[in-house]
Automatic annotation (TrEMBL):
Its EC number is 3.6.1.11. The keyword Hydrolase applies. InterPro entries: ATPase_NBD, Exopolyphosphatase, GppA/Ppx_hydrolase, Ppx_C, Ppx_GppA_N. It comes from Thalassospira xianhensis MCCC 1A02616. GO terms for molecular function: exopolyphosphatase activity. It catalyses: [phosphate](n) + H2O = [phosphate](n-1) + phosphate + H(+). This is exopolyphosphatase. Keywords: Hydrolase. GO terms for biological process: phosphorus metabolic process. Residues 31-303 form the Ppx/GppA phosphatase N-terminal domain. Gene3D superfamilies: 3.30.420.40, Exopolyphosphatase. Domain 2, Hypothetical protein af1432. Residues 327-484 form the Exopolyphosphatase C-terminal domain. It is an enzyme of class 3 (hydrolase). It holds the Pfam family Ppx_C.
Length: 498
């Protein structure tokens, strides 16, 4: 049974990285964590242009000030657990311990410095939290290091941390292309298992690589702005990263779509990805917004929560926050099942998700329910879906609210005609179910959908006969036409057994 099992106690993680310090607060432990507070300060702790081996003094002051602010906020938010994890910059710096001691003295917060393999493991867990069968090589590029993990069906097989962080490469090698390529090659040569990623995806984690995805979205006028699970074939991303790796700061600044604080190191991040793709012979790149913080949360979850589907849990939370009768989804899914016996691939899961969030637009103006619901799902930040499935789910809900939903450029570009037809069919079935029941739990079990000899029959138990009406028959007829059937309403003494 899909029930909401979140725990009310707030927990938080502070990620002290080479480039940024970020606080994320979650409203308890849940399988699909949605932050209630998320703030990042670009401190540049690992920016060491003089190659002193110490933390950037200006960055230390900015980070300490940010952590003082975070500590005060955490007390006000009554957070019950906070973990502070410091990565490459702090662990590599000769004054890293002094920084941690200062933070503790000024804020009361204890900083835990994790090694590269622990960072790799947590980042891989972040990817697994969204896809329990993740397969390929995860690469998490930070400012000071690159973590690589070989994943097979959601299991960590091999991992390594190498000093190929984008900020470090920029600080040490600048624009010296020959030395930079030699450095990347030297460290990738030490990873003798990269060939095991052949014809599998490179799962790209880290802000610098996400900036590459954002640049692609901006330049290509890509219809979905969500970076998470953006997938690009190797040939396309290899060409893009090759071009990026050769650009100057001035050129990238003119392009737009990239944070100014990442522009200096973006060519270095592009070169690392380009050379890694070549070494792996990867099939494609899948950009992931999940990483160390999501992995930390995933590891903290009880095993029974880890086993749950993150998409369906996110939809349950979405429904609970925005629907009138959020318990109705599973009932609607079971009720419509007899006419959807054969569902290839992932469609059954997506139909259940659509049933759960099928009332999400109830409080919008009737003229805008379809497009507003479509856009909410299309751009929702916490749905673990690839872009094709994201658009399909959004299109299904858009179709639930109007008989002739057209979608937009996203559906035109990412869905073929057959897939749109399935989404339209799912949407109209959900529409009929909500019309028949008013969205209230307990009514649909007194009715049944039956498909017999090209006739779609809505059976109403005699105790529920009064539910029939003109609008019900109209929507049943529309659904039947989409299925190339006739329609009929029948009052019965006994419903068929499921």
């Amino acid at each position: 049974m899909l029930t909401d099992q979140r725990v009310s106690n707030r927990i938080a993680i502070i990620d002290v990285g080479s480039n940024s310090v970020r606080l994320v607060v979650f409203d308890g432990m849940t399988r699909a964590p949605a932050p209630i507070f998320n703030e990042k300060v670009m401190c540049g702790l690992g920016r060491d242009p003089e190659n002193t081996g110490r933390l950037n003094p200006e960055g230390v002051e900015m980070a300490t000030a940010a952590l003082r602010r975070f500590a005060r906020l955490l007390r006000a938010m009554k957070v019950t657990r906070v973990d502070i994890l410091a990565t490459a910059a702090v662990r590599a710096a000769s004054d890293g311990k002094a920084f941690c001691d200062r933070v503790h003295a000024e804020t009361g917060l204890t900083v835990k410095v994790i090694d590269g393999l622990e960072e790799a493991r947590l980042s891989a867990f972040g990817v697994i939290s969204g896809d329990r069968r993740a397969t390929g090589i995860m690469g998490d590029i930070g400012g000071g290091s690159l973590e690589l993990v070989l994943l097979e069906e959601g299991e960590i097989k091999k991992s390594v941390s190498v000093p190929l962080g984008a900020m470090r490469l920029h600080a040490v090698f600048g624009a010296d292309r020959a030395r930079l390529e030699a450095e990347v090659k030297t460290h990738l040569d030490t990873v003798d298992w990269l060939h095991e990623g052949a014809d599998k995806p490179l799962i790209a984690v880290g802000g610098s690589w996400r900036s590459i995805a954002k640049l692609y979205i901006a330049q290509e006028n890509y219809p979905i702005s969500v970076v998470h699970n953006l997938t690009m074939p190797r040939a396309e991303i290899a060409e893009l990263t090759h071009i990026i790796s050769q650009q100057s700061r001035v050129s990238l600044d003119k392009v737009g779509g990239v944070s100014k604080r990442r522009i200096d190191s973006l060519p270095h991040a592009g070169l690392v990805m380009n050379m890694l793709l070549e070494r792996m012979q990867a099939k494609e790149v899948v950009f992931s917004s999940h990483g160390l913080r999501e992995g930390w949360m995933y590891e903290a979850l009880p095993e029974e929560l880890r086993e749950r589907d993150p998409l369906l849990d996110a939809c349950l939370s979405f429904a609970e926050d925005g629907e009138r009768f959020h318990q109705h989804g599973e009932e609607l899914y079971r009720w419509s099942a007899p006419i959807f016996r054969e569902q290839p691939g992932n469609l059954g899961r997506l139909r259940l998700a659509a049933c759960i969030i099928g009332d999400v637009g109830w409080n919008e103006h009737p003229d805008y329910r379809a497009i507003q619901s479509y856009n909410r799902i299309l751009h929702h930040p916490y749905l673990d879906l690839n872009h094709h499935d994201r658009v399909f789910l959004a299109y299904t809900i858009g179709s639930r609210y109007t008989g002739n939903f057209k979608g937009d450029e996203s559906s035109d570009r990412l869905l073929d005609d057959d897939t749109r037809s399935i989404g339209r069919l799912y949407g109209h079935a959900i529409r009929l179910g909500h019309t028949l029941s008013g969205g209230v739990e307990g009514i649909l079990p007194g009715t049944a959908l039956v498909l017999e000899d090209k006739v779609l029959i809505l059976q109403l138990h005699k105790d529920f006969a009064a539910l029939n009406g003109e609008v019900v028959e109209q929507r049943l007829s529309k659904l039947a036409k989409l299925m190339d059937c006739e329609s009929q309403v029948v009052i019965v003494d006994q419903l068929p057994q499921p």
